[in-house]
Each structure stands twice: as structure tokens, then as C-alpha cells.
Amino acid sequence: MNQQRMPLFHALQQFSVNRPISFHVPGHKNGNIFPEAVKQYFHTLLKFDMTELTGLDDLHAPETVIADAEQLAADFFQTKKTFFLVGGSTAGNLAMILATCKASDKVIVQRNVHKSIMNGLELCGASPVFIAPDYNEAVHRYNNPNINTLKRAIEQHPNAKAVVLTYPDYFGHTFALKKMIELAHSHRIPVLIDEAHGVHFSLGSPMPPSAIKLGADIVVQSAHKMAPAMTMGSYLHMNSRYVSERQVAHYLQMIQSSSPSYPLMASLDIARAFLANMPPKAIHAILDSVDKVKGALSQTNYWSIVTADDPLKITLEMQEGITATQVASYFEEQQIYPELATHNQLLFIHGLAPFTEVNRLKKAVKTVNDQLKNTARHDTIDIQGLFTEKVQELALSYQTMDQLQTNYFPLQDAVGYVAAESVIPYPPGIALILKGEVITTTHINTLFLLREQGVRMQHRYTEDIQVFINIGLEEGEEGS
Asked: Are residues 328 and 447 both part of a single domain?
């Protein structure tokens, strides 16, 4: 197929050139009804903000330009079917789980998955079987489960309906996914992959291989994270003999808006064309730029750079006593915004084009160095004890949780109770405490230290936590 084509974008472009008169939604009427004070910022985009008019197709029943755009994406990514997503990878993660799993089904799932995976499991009422990630001493964080842990989980739960994994992780770390996929497939279990951070892997070497190429059944990618697509623009790719394409389409139309954004969908068409037509010399220029950015960021004694499989992910690991959140705030004071700060690591994401302000970055690093000379040191957080059980299930099923009463307890008094809500550092959106999990001393101590060091939490109340009561667990029973 001609990968230079952008059928959806060009259809919208031609439609706007014809100066259409709108007696339909949306209410801004092709951008003509909009506050004058801000109109100049939105005017061009609003001309593309259409609805399902003749010639513009329908995302939920595509036949013409959207179907053509999705087929071009499937051709480039080498899939049997690619769906455009307007609800982010969250929509794709929900749909792939709902299409694969039913109430009480066992699902083998990596413990450090994005919250949307857990929400999907709760929505369908499945019973997650968690496989713990290994702690990577080289990078001082949890990465991925190993194949022996997966094998053990499959042996214990041979009737599992799916294996759900994250590849790569937020920091660009990959693992031997192909062997895990082959293991699951040998038991006729489909493998669902959250590849939110890997849309650019289809560019080929030196990028890691995509989970699509490695044989996964369903792969969800956030186009907007690494490619030039608008925020929330994502893809769901299928290459499965086990999961029904019709079921996935059914749940996508349930989960996503019935009025999807045309500018967003057009950006997915554009992002695919951008990736498909990137020449090798452009990739070489990007890699040269990455080296220059790393060189600028290396001019310090307060952190070191951690290598990643994805060359576009640049992680700074702080020296003992320095917090990544504090360093992030110093960079932000100079209008330089990293992607993510954990307690000890700061993530910078390089784009798919050369970075042009290296000198400004060097000056910022020098300023941060000067500020850190007078910054108080903090305690080091030890997270190695978070995932002690290699294969584990929730203390309660989602069906049981729906029937129970809850109450709010002060955090320090909640140890031994079962959490009725998740506590999620965000980003990256991976739960420290899961709903349905027994709260441990390690959980609470880690939570207090993370909060003290400025890590943001998606947890509505800062001093207490919602727990299930009267469930037969001994009150105050302390976890490890």
C-alpha cells in the first residue's frame, strides 16, 4: 500500500476547502462560533472538528476514509487488524480485557501494570493472578516478571484465559517477551500487551522489536506518547487466533465516545504516515541528538544516566540523598519539563527529531548543580520488599468486594486490612496498593516516604484509606 497517503486527513482537508455550511453539530459551526479572544488559537483546528457527515465515515462502522486509514496502519504495523483509539491506550486496554475475559476467569497479569489494566479486570469481574516483577539491581527498580514465574503461574492456573504484560516499561526497558508468548501459546492462552510506550518500535533497529513482531495476540500502543499524534490518540493491533475481532470492536464502541474527535483521528493517520516514511538518515540524526542530550545531562556529580533498551528514554538516577522530585522542580523552574519523577529517578523522553536547544539544556544543568549544593539530603527509599510473593491473588474477589461495607482508617492504622481503593503514584499509574490487596507495613512506610519526597498520588484522601470491614480478617493483623 502507498504509505504516503493520509486518506482521513485529506478528506477533512478537502471538506474544509469546500466552505461547508453547518446545520449540524458541533456547536462551534466549523469554528465560526467561538470566543474572539481565543479564536486565533483554535480556528484552523476547528475547521477539521467535524462529525459523521457523508464522505467522512464513522469510526464505529468504518467503510471509507477511516477504514482506509486503519488498513494503511495495519499494513505498516503488519497486523491483521488495527483499530484507531480516541480514548487513549486506556480504551484499548479495557477493550482487550473485556473481549477476552469474563466473570471469575483467571487472568495472569504482571503486578506492576497500568491502572487501566486493573480497571478492566474489575469491570469484567475476572480473578487476577499476579506475577511479581523482578527487582533489577542494575537500575534499582522493578522491571518485568521472568519466564519461570510465568511458567509457575500457568502450572497453577492452566485454565487462565489470558496473560497480560507491559512491554516496554515506562523507562524503555524490554525483556525476553517472545519466549513468554511462546510459553503461553503452548497452553493456548492469548497474550495481551500494553505497549503504550512502544509505537516507534516498528521503525526497526536500533529500536527494540515490537510485541507485534514477537507474536502477541493484541498490542495496544499510545501513538501520542512517542509519535506526532494528539493526546489520547492510540492504536489497538490484532494478530490473534484466540481473540475475536468482532468482540474487540463491540467493546470499543461501548467504551469510546459515540462522537469521536476527527482532529484526533486524523492525527493517527498522520502519525502512521510519519513513521512509515521516516528514512534511515533521520533515525541516525535522532540518535546523534540523543547522544548530545545525554552529554549535556551528564555534566554533574549528582546523578548518572541509566541505559535503556529504547534509545529515546533517558533516565537520570540520583545519588544517595538527592530526590528526583526536587531535581525535577529545579528543571521546571527553567521551563524544562521531564516526563516522570520517581523517588530516585528522573525520566526524559527524546522525540523523533533532533533536539535543537542543547546549549539551553547545558545551562539548565549548571543551574541545577548550583541549587543542589545547598539542598538538604533525604532518606533513601528501599522498595525491594514490595513484591515478596512471586505468584499471588487478591485477598477478595471483585464480586465479594461489591457486597462489602467499607470505612476510612488512618493510614498508619490500616495495616492488615484489605484495601477498598487503590493508591497510585502518577505518573506512571502503577498501583502501590491495589484494591483487594492486604495492606502491609511496607506499603504504608513506602507511601509515607514517597509523599514526603513529593511523589504525586492518585489517592483522594491523603491521611486515610478506604478499607473493607467485617470480612473475617483479624483487625490490625500486620502484613510483612
From this structure: no
Average pLDDT over residues 54-82: 98
Does residue 60 lie within any of the structural domains? yes
Q: Which of 141-150, 211-220, 468-477 has the lowest mean pLDDT?
A: 468-477
Which CA distances in Å does 156 have to 48, 179, 242, 365?
53, 19, 21, 51
In angstroms, what CA-CA distances link 459 with 21, 31, 360, 462, 470?
47, 38, 36, 7, 23
Say if residue 349 is in the same domain as residue 419: no
- Residues 139, 141: Cα–Cα separation, whole Å: 6
In a domain, 143, yes or no: yes
Residue 145 region, left (φ>0) first, then alpha (ψ -120 to 50), else beta?
Answer: beta
Percent of the chain with pLDDT over 90: 85
Residue 26 has pLDDT above 90, yes or no: yes
- What is the pLDDT, as a whole number, of residue 378? 67
What whole-number distance in Å separates Cα of residue 196 and Cα of residue 227? 11
Return the DSSP state at 215: T
Pairing relationship of beta strands 81-85 and 234-238 according to DSSP bridges: antiparallel
- Residues 6+ positions from 153 with CB-CB distance below 8 Å: 108, 129, 131, 160, 391
Band (460; pLDDT cuts 50, 70, 90): low
Q: How far apart are CA 281 and CA 272, in angstroms?
A: 18
| Domain enclosing residue 364, as ranges | 280-373
Q: Is residue 477 part of a domain?
A: no
302, part of any domain = yes
| Domain CATH number, residue 143 | 3.40.640.10
pLDDT 10s digits, 90-118: 999 999 999 999 999 999 999 999 999 99
Q: How many independent structural domains does the chain possess?
A: 3
Alpha helices in 423-468, H assignment, sequence order: 441-452
Beta strand extents in 357-423 (DSSP E only): 391-393, 406-410
Number of residues that make up the chain: 480
CA distance 106 to 116: 18
Question: Taking each helix axis from N to C terminus, what angle separates 262-276 and 65-77, rounded to the nearest 10 degrees?
Answer: 30
What residues contact residue 86 under an 8 Å CB cut-off, 6+ apart? 59, 232, 233, 256, 257, 260, 261, 264, 265
E strands, 350-470, are 391-393, 406-410, 424-425, 457-458, 464-468
- My answer on whether 206 and 335 are in the same domain is no
